[in-house]
Amino acid sequence: MWAIARVGVDGNVAPAPAACDDLPTWGDEHNRQSPGRAGATRRSAAREAAIRIALMSDIHANREAFTACLAHAQALAPDRFVFLGDYVGYGGDPGWVVETLMAMVERGAIALRGNHDAAIADGTNHMNDSAAAAIDWTRAQLGAPAREFLARLPMTVEEDGRLYVHGEGSAPERWRYVEDAADAWRSLGATQAAVTVVGHVHVPAVYGLTATNKVTSFRPTGGVAVPLLRQRRWLAVLGSVGQPRDRDPAASYAMLDVARAELTFHRVPYDIEAAAARIRAAGLPESLAARLFAGR
Ligand SMILES: [Fe+2]
User: Fold this and answer.
1) Could you give the domains of the chain?
2) Distance, CA 55 to ligand 1 centroid (Å)?
3) Nearest to 49 by CA among 71, 26, 69, 32
4) How far apart are CA 145 and CA 260, in angstroms?
5) Pair type for strands 41-43 and 110-111
6) Which of 54-63, 119-128, 134-143, 174-183 has the lowest mean pLDDT?
7) Residue 52 Cα, ligand 1 centroid: separation in angstroms?
8) Can you give the pTM of this predicted structure?
9) 119 CA to centre of ligand 1 in angstroms
10) How far is CA 134 from CA 176, 275, 287, in A?
11) 96-132 confidence digits (pLDDT tens)
12) How far is the CA of 252 from the centre of ligand 1 (A)?
């Protein structure tokens, strides 16, 4: 569904967004709330500055993929975990995933709301049949504390010049995707954050806004650090822990090193057979199990 060819084309030119005149510097205290989103953003200025941040999105009730990514990240000793939404939907173990997430938030992790999380309370109006079937099944699997936890998650969080949001920054509640340079420009123009981190697309990508207001884009390689040059502003699309769609079935997450200004994407193999077996055992559509093996 997500056109890989649209990502990886460098040199896409976009008009100058007004918000780019005063570029923030990495590590500055730069907590600010974007206009028009009063009440939606949770600030975190009181949190201790994190140096190494594990970034994960779109876990989608995939216990095996989540477990593998947590173990991989823990070995790199992150100072904090940030989760970009879509903890449920599609996969076969939403209860364990949400309980694990709740415990991590209790210990200081940041968690954003995704559209599948919102659908637990708000309904499945805009979802296809298999996604809606998974949400309806998921709703019955979750206890009241888990449902309330998902309902209370913030749409955006900003800290130290970074904006975290599931979809994109210009209208987080609309759940729009960042699939190309124009999408990235729209989001980057809505914030002065030096780095925006999003999920939702399930395909990893990095976009940079240059000093001459051009948006460049590329697909990151797993295990290779991307230098986030301080003269640019950046938008990173994380890819998905639990349902990758870039034809690589390995789980995807990223580690941000604030001190080095580097972002490294990781691809983590996991027990896909076990994850697919849970989906089948739950009676969810077979397509949701089959797509995990193909990474699409
Ligand atoms: Fe998702």
Assistant:
1) 4-24+49-294 (3.60.21.10)
2) 14
3) 26
4) 39
5) unpaired
6) 119-128
7) 24
8) 0.85
9) 12
10) 21, 14, 11
11) 999 999 999 999 999 999 999 999 999 998 899 999 9
12) 12
